[in-house]
Amino acid sequence: MGKAKTDADVNKPKRAMSSYFMFMNDRRAKFREDNPEMSMCQITKALTEVWHKLTDDEKKKYTDMA
User: Cα separation of 31 and 10, whole Å?
Assistant: First the structure.
């Protein structure tokens, strides 16, 4: 059988959000508005491609926020 699940500490602070997730949260709503026919999965894939094409200078905004 599998391992028994231990109780997680509900008061444990959450990990800081990564620069990638900051970028996704910043761009997702506008991208979805511009592409209403796309599913959330397709939007995520498209935004991931945009993220990979960004230069380090363009990513700096999100890196600094993270």
Answer: 34
Q: pTM to 2 decimals?
A: 0.71
Angle at which helices 40-53 and 19-34 pack, to 10 degrees?
120
Summarised one tens digit per residue, pLDDT across range 23-51 is 999 999 999 999 999 999 999 999 999 99
DSSP letter for each residue of the chain = -PPPPPPP-TTSPPPPPPHHHHHHHHHHHHHHHH-TTS-HHHHHHHHHHHHHHS-HHHHHHHHHH-
CA distance 45 to 54: 15
Identity of the amino acid at 20 = Y
Cα torsion angle, 15, 18, 33, 41, sign: negative
